[in-house]
Task: inverse folding
């Protein structure tokens, strides 16, 4: 059974006449009659009763007409969906992101993307930087937003947004009276920090800052989520060194101060598998780049 035979049959059934159906299909009558006969032979069922003036559907033909129309409609829908997917207007995109991305580029990029491409199914997954590479490798996500530095084979990395480092500390801390803090200021202070397996690059970056200042960090507590770290700072357990976007997390009892030290910058980056080609991904990356540029042009940090 061929798709063209379904179209031929629908035309004959609707026109109730081989000659009229042939004109509608822009073909001659003999090959049309032959194709319908072959369709009936394939099915082993008579679909039409024929007379010299017109044709009529058998009971089996009426059922087959309904199914043929449904198949042709679904085929046309499949073609349209496929064309939309090729142009990035439709499809599914699994995204991984770290929590700090929701404080900067992710919300405006999502709003713009959903407004332009409402038929795209976005699957959002909060995944720590240290686990996004595995998620890319095993296909759980196709795209990620994570914290640099990162080194992983087969992963394409595009830095997106640069942030300065800040120190989050209890508002009544003795260091809160200073406008800026140095590594020497915080070296002996109890530190609340991320677990290395969750953000290995960022973790090692901060560790190197302490080592360069000649002071090993005094880590008293580790946590997975940024919000948890801020909450522990508010409790007076210690202070923390964080990306500047953390200032957007307003919490009673917590203040933020810039960290004055060499190499006190951190990058949010876009990652995907090397060689992946997708208009859908290109469209989403465009919205993220636009959001990052808009943030860079504005004073998007919140002062304490």
Result:
């Amino acid at each position: 059974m061929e798709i063209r035979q379904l179209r031929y049959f629908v035309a004959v059934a609707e026109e109730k006449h081989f000659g009229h159906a042939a004109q509608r299909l822009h073909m001659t009558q003999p090959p049309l009659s032959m194709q319908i006969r072959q369709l009936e032979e394939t099915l082993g069922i008579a679909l039409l009763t024929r007379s010299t003036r017109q044709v009529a559907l058998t009971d089996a033909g009426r059922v087959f007409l309904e199914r043929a129309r449904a198949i042709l409609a679904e085929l046309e829908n499949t073609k349209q969906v496929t064309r939309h997917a090729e142009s990035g207007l439709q499809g599914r995109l699994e995204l991984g992101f770290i929590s700090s991305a929701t404080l900067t580029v992710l919300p405006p990029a999502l709003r713009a993307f959903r407004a332009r491409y409402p038929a795209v199914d976005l699957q959002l997954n909060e995944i720590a930087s240290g686990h996004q590479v595995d998620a890319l490798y095993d296909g759980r996500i196709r795209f990620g937003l994570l914290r640099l530095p990162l080194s992983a084979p087969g992963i394409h990395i595009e830095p997106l947004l640069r942030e300065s480092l800040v120190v989050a500390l209890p508002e009544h801390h003795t260091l809160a009276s200073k406008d800026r803090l140095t590594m020497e200021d915080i070296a002996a202070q109890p530190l609340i920090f991320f677990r290395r397996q969750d953000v290995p690059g960022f973790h090692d970056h901060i560790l190197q800052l302490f080592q360069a200042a000649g002071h090993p960090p005094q880590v008293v507590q580790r946590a997975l989520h940024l919000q948890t770290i801020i909450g522990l700072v508010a409790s007076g357990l210690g202070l923390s060194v964080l990306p500047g976007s953390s200032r957007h997390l307003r919490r009673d009892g917590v203040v933020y101060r810039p960290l004055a030290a060499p190499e006190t910058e951190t990058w949010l980056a876009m990652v995907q598998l090397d060689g992946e080609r997708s208009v859908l991904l290109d469209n989403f990356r465009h919205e993220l780049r636009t959001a990052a540029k808009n943030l860079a042009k504005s004073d998007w940090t919140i002062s304490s």
